Amino acid sequence: MEQWPGVIERYRPLLSLPPDIEAFTLLEGNTPLVPLPRLAEALGAGALFAKYEGLNPTGSFKDRGMTTAVSEALYRRSRALVCASTGNTAASAAAYAARAGLRAFVLVPQGKVALGKLAGAMAYGAEVIQVEGSFDSALAMVRAIAEECPLAVVNSLNPYRLEGQKTAAFEICDTLGRAPDWLALPVGNAGNMTAYWMGFRLYAREKGTGLPRLLGVQAAGAAPLVLGHPVDNPETLATAIRIGRPVRGTEAVMAATESLGRIIAVSDKAILEAQKQLAGQGVWVEPASAASLAGLTGEVGAGRLDLRGKTVVCVCSGHGLKDPAAITDRLPRPRVITADLHALRGVINL
Fold it and tell me: Residues 215, 216, 217, CA angle at the centre, nearest 5°?
């Protein structure tokens, strides 16, 4: 039986990596485009899909870039990795470090990381360090310590992260046979939006697949690219995009402009409603992932976006199990009944 080889082996000729690099992989990528017909009808779209990146090995899109970043670090004979993270990068870096036999140091903002992500980093054996400050403070410390110690930084400022992450654009084009008309995606540190645009442009040159328009979506409490200036104390329940100083912000804004798209902000309320809508179609994502649908819904509702006859892809960047408290803390507890059929009949009244 032929097995999916991971993104490096699948797309090696299109990746800017050393030709003889060994791929350290967990067979990431090959995530599905899940049709969302009822939501497509509600938005007036010709077709709507979720690129469900939560089905990567550690539950988020970060695995695509981590396989390339860690493989390149091993190629240079690095012995340890370091990153700052709001959670997903931490779990992914820890997993790929374990795969490659490296130590991993991950810095996270104290009390600001969803437990599902923190548990992942710990389970894979990373040395987790909590920082009294924001993600941006943690990243500044990572950059500084990397100047003093022989550590490979695997945040999205590492260009090899983008090489892996751009493969998601390749997969979308391979599945659809062309680029979608619109691609909506959450924006935190802005590396993913930058990488998708790299991927679509490369595939358009190599295979003639065309280019989409990009809709980048930030949370209103953490929207530096919409406001036009850094946010010192970003706040949003969408922890994965709670970032006030995006490392790849300039590139993401350029991608939005070049694609004739835009970057917008949505409220936490809109994000939670979109998370509920996606779950209603069988796709459970962490809150940040739902920002893409929230952005589309808001733009269509305000009359700023007409999706009639358009093929649209929402990037759902992380699985709902990354942040289960976003559900359990706000919804009623499941009802309890006695262990008898009469009690069950009282509940199931079809």
Answer: 115
Query: Is-contact 268 253, C-beta < 8 A?
Result: no
pLDDT tens digits, one per residue of 71-118:
999 999 999 999 999 889 999 999 999 999 999 999 999 988 888 888
In order of start, what are the domains of the chain with their CATH numbers? 7-60+160-328 (3.40.50.1100), 62-159 (3.40.50.1100)
- Cβ distance 226 to 234 under 8 Å? no
End-to-end CA distance of the chain: 45
Residues 6 or more apart in contact with residue 296 via CB below 8 angstroms: 43, 182, 184, 215, 305, 307, 312, 314
Per the document, the length of the chain is 350
Contacts of 328 (CB under 8 A, 6+ apart): none
Number of neighbours of residue 212 by Cβ within 10 angstroms:
27
Give the largest CA-CA distance in the chain: 69
CA-wise closest residue to 107 among 133, 130, 80: 130
Is the separation of the CB atoms in 123 and 26 below 8 Å?
A: no
The rounded distance, in Å, linking the Cα atoms of 177 and 326 is: 36
Query: In angstroms, rounded to a whole number, what is the distance separating the alpha carbons of residues 202 and 183?
Result: 16
Task: Choose among 109, 158, 104, 113: nearest CA to 138.
Answer: 109
80, amino acid identity? A
Residue 9, pLDDT score: 97
The single-letter code of the amino acid at 185 is L
Residue-wise pLDDT for 141-168, tens only, equals: 999 999 999 999 999 999 999 999 999 9
H or E element: which one contains 266? strand 262-266
